[in-house]
TrEMBL record:
Organism field: Sphingomonas plantiphila
Pfam families (alphabetical): adh_short
Tagged with keyword Oxidoreductase: yes
Domain Ketoreductase: 7-191
Listed SMART domains: PKS_KR (SM00822)
Key words, A-Z: Oxidoreductase
Family: Belongs to the short-chain dehydrogenases/reductases (SDR) family.
Name used for this protein in its record: SDR family oxidoreductase
InterPro entries: KR_dom, NAD(P)-bd_dom_sf, Sc_DH/Rdtase_CS, SDR_fam
Highest taxon listed in the record's lineage: Bacteria
Length: 237
């Protein structure tokens, strides 16, 4: 039986791609999910789909760059389920702009969406998890935190920063039985992935593949931390 049975999982960026696939995969393991993203209608449709599959899900329209909205997300999760066992910091945007063409506004939008959001959600989740005596935070990084793509200074910096945030939180939280880890996907066929890759879909990972990795990292006894995963496509054109 999966350790995820009955556990409550908050997933950011759940309205499409890897986050949506993760919601389906967690519910298939018997978890309850809290879905956060800005596109409320897509979250509502996913709640219906998960309900039809026998799952329990709550949609909370959230801009994860907004500290108040993140607070409201965790308040809603606690009001409905009374606990948060797993947080998947998955929300993100891509960017392919050379440094000399990157406005300060664009720089902060990428950093806030991909990095500050994870800080805000972790800051809200950690006290809950410490009170519970256990918890797990999985940050979705990128291969760009290892090998930058061309013309992606803001994106690469955001994912490199997320790697550093993961390391720092992992050390700080482990004494309280809260595990913090990072999953770095290669190219995944999503709305975001399609924009950064010219490879055909059958040569890259699918959202369900990435979701399998995330669920695998979460489906562990509390005393273990699958600290880091780097998963890249294994086929070459
Ligand atoms: P998608 O574009 O399909 O999903 C991105 C999700 O992030 C959407 O649900 C979007 O929802 C959400 N999001 C974006 N901005 C915000 C915001 N301000 N507040 C709340 N939610 C937000 O792409 P992926 O599934 O591919 O991306 C998921 C993660 O995977 C990202 O962190 C990305 O960097 C990472 N990744 C993806 C790779 C790929 O090839 N696809 C490769 C490496 C890493 P909404 O617009 O409704 O708010």
């Amino acid at each position: 039986m999966s350790i995820l049975l009955g556990r409550v999982v908050v997933i950011t960026g759940a309205s499409s791609g890897i986050g949506e696939a993760s919601a389906l995969a967690f519910v298939a393991k018997g978890a309850k999910v809290v879905l956060a993203a800005r596109r409320a209608e897509r979250l509502d449709a996913l709640v219906s789909r998960l309900g039809a599959a026998g799952g329990e899900a709550l949609a909370v329209a959230t801009d994860v760059t907004d500290a108040d909205a993140v607070g409201a997300l965790f308040d809603a999760a606690m009001a409905r389920f009374g606990r948060v066992d797993v947080l998947v910091n998955n929300a993100g945007i891509a960017d392919s702009t050379p440094a000399e063409e990157t406005s300060l506004e664009l720089w902060w939008r990428v950093i806030d969406t991909n990095l500050t959001s994870a800080f805000l959600c972790a800051r809200a989740a950690i006290p809950i998890m410490k009170r519970q005596g256990h918890g797990r935070i999985i940050n979705v990084g990128s291969i760009s935190a290892k090998v930058p793509r061309a013309n992606s200074p803001a994106y690469s910096a955001s994912k490199w920063g997320l790697d550093g945030l993961t390391r720092s939180l992992a050390i700080d939280c482990r004494a309280d039985n809260v595990a913090v880890s990072v999953f770095h996907p290669g190219i995944v066929a999503t709305e975001l992935g399609g924009g950064i890759s010219s490879l055909p879909d059958d040569l890259v990972a699918q959202p369900e593949d990435a979701a399998d990795v995330i669920v695998h990292m979460a489906d562990l006894p509390d005393h273990l931390n699958f600290y880091e995963a780097l998963v890249v496509q294994n086929k070459i054109p």
